[in-house]
Amino acid sequence: MKIFRILVVLLILVGVAVAVVVNLGPKDPVRIEVQTEVARVEPITQVVTASGKIRPEKEVQVAADVGGYIRQLTVKEGDQVTAGQLLVQIEPEIYAARVQEVEAAAKTAQAQVALAEASLVRIRGEEERVRGLYAKDLTSKSALEKAQAELTIGQAQVDSARGQLLQAQATLDKARKDLKKCTITSPLNGTVVLLNKEAGERASGGDFREDIIMTVSDLSSMEVEVEVGEREVVLISEGDEAEIEADAFAGKPIPGRVKEVGSAGITKNPGTEAEVTTFRVVIQVLETTLKVRPQMSATVRMRTDHKDQALTVPIQSVCLRRPSELEAGGPEGGGDEGEAKEGGGAAKEGGGEAKAGEGEAKAGEGEAKAGGGEAKAGEGEAKEGEGEAKAKEGGAPTLGGFKREEPVEVVFTLEDGAAHALRVKTGLSSDTRIEILEGIEAGTEVVSGPYRALAKDLQEGSLVQKPRPGAGDLDPRQGKGGEGGRPMPGKGGGGRGGHGKKG
Questions:
Q1: 383-416 in b/e burial notation, b at 16+ Cβ within 10 A?
Q2: Which one in 16, 160, 181, 347 has a CA-CA gap of 20 to 30 Å to 129?
Q3: Angle 150-155-157 from CA coordinates, rounded to 5°
Q4: 208 by DSSP, 3-state: which?
Q5: Longest CA–CA separation in the chain, Å
């Protein structure tokens, strides 16, 4: 029994020893599995994509200008109407009575004018008679002054009566217009798309409270209003061709044309981190057999530029990297890290003795390090001053004495089983392709996926391999390059998608 236990223990110890030896032994370097595609010359169309709502070019909200109960409603929702057709009749009795009342007041004011004018004729004749007597010294000066004062009063009474007549006439005009407003007609040829009232309901008129009775739209001419970002609006011009796809008619594009590009931006969430500025763009829907309706959701692809011959690669193949990351063995380790790991086993094995011997040296260095604290502290100010001096000499932007790097555009090619980054200059971009102006030639094989590799893993010199035949698709969680996105340095997303700027 004891011998059996000893054998079991020995077997366990042997297994542990074998596992330790296997784990500490040299390992094959890890290779990143990538997909590739060849750069080719082909036509490319730069596209700006945005979403919005379809709406009629002409749409009128019909409301009552005067208040009252709706006596007659001649249409229902969906009816076709013509300009001038009767739509709504408001009860007119109150407004008709008001017209009669004001007409009577206007007649009274007109009679008052006639009386004042007749009185003025009499007073003027009296004033002339007194002036003649005064010229012959047959009357006193006070009598003349009295006659002149009465003439002035008579003229003023005429002016007052005429003013009251004008006021009464204006009131009469308003009353007649209010009576006319009780009859509401269609302002255009179109369709009743919305009906908010029924016969017998009360319509509240007035300028300060608009009570919409119905909406009439001309469905024969439609448009789409979208909002685009400030980086994309500079690419769009009036007259650009567009392709409209309504969600209700998926896969059936509708031709369109850019009709209007907003001049003023719309700022949302001002003063916050989520602040964003967009611009309004209106696209006219051209002739189509599809029955598009107002408020349908639609996606618009505006073609802003085109080239028949352009060297293109998949848009996700163009990555952003910092210049320091393009050097082998840079911040991410790159491919040299693999070679270092291959020889690292031997270094670790021999390093045990070295570390053991270094213990005393480190212990002896403690005092020196402690004493050097002040010197290092003094060196800090010197280094900081050097950083500012270097920044002034080189002109490069700095932050705290360190050079701030701006990312550059690169594509990755394969060379002897390793990734090689090439700087490129880009031009037009579509939803899936981007033009390369400088950096590579037609036929160059570039890495096109997966997205994680392009966004983060790939560096200059990284060991790579293509998918093995029959291995199937890559891990779906890694994606296939994230169409429409530009991999950012050290991040999992970002880019300009199908809204690229001109190179």
A1: eeeebeeebeeeeeeeeeeeeeeeebbbbbbbee
A2: 160
A3: 95
A4: coil
A5: 170
CA–centroid distance for 216 within its chain: 29
Q: How far apart (Å, rounded) are the C-alpha atoms in residues 90 and 185?
A: 12
The pLDDT assigned to 118 comes to 94
* pTM, to two decimals: 0.59
| Dist. CA 262–CA 418, nearest whole Å | 49
Which neighbouring-strand residues pair with 330?
none
- Which residue's entry shows tokens 């390369």? 436
**Residues found in the chain:** 503
pLDDT given for residue 325 in this prediction = 80
Q: Which residues have CB under 8 Å from 374's CB, separation 6+?
A: none
Residue-wise pLDDT for 222-250, tens only, equals: 999 999 999 899 999 999 999 999 999 99
Dist CA 468 CA 472 (whole Å): 8
Q: Are 198 and 118 in contact (CB under 8 A)?
A: no
* CA of residue 228 relative to chain centroid, distance: 4
Q: Residue 453 and residue 35: Cα distance in Å, rounded? A: 10
Which residues of the chain register pLDDT less than 50?
Answer: 329-396, 399-400, 472-484, 489-503
CA distance 20 to 144: 139
C-alpha span between 252 and 323 (Å, rounded): 45
Residue 312: which of 46, 6, 105 has the closest Cα?
Answer: 46
CA distances from 138 to 135, 172, 278 (A): 8, 52, 91
> Are 306 and 44 a contacting pair, CB within 8 Å?
yes
In sign, the C-alpha dihedral spanning 145, 149, 152, 154 is negative
pLDDT digits (tens, 9 = 90+) for 428-464: 988 899 999 999 999 999 999 888 888 888 888 889 8
What is d(CA 202, CA 355) in angstroms, rounded to the nearest whole number? 95
DSSP calls for 312-377 = EEEGGG-EEE-GGGGSTT-TT-TTHHHHHHHHHHHHHHHHHHHHHHHHHHHHHHHHHHHHTHHHHH
Neighbours of 474 (CB within 10 A): 19
Residue 178: CB atoms within 10 Å: 20
pLDDT in tens, 119-146: 999 999 999 999 898 898 888 899 989 9
CB 33 within 8 A of CB 465: yes
What is the C-alpha end-to-end distance of the chain, expressed in Å? 83
| 305-341 as b/e: b if 16+ CB within 10 A | bebeebbbbbbbbbbbbeeebbebebebebbbbbeee
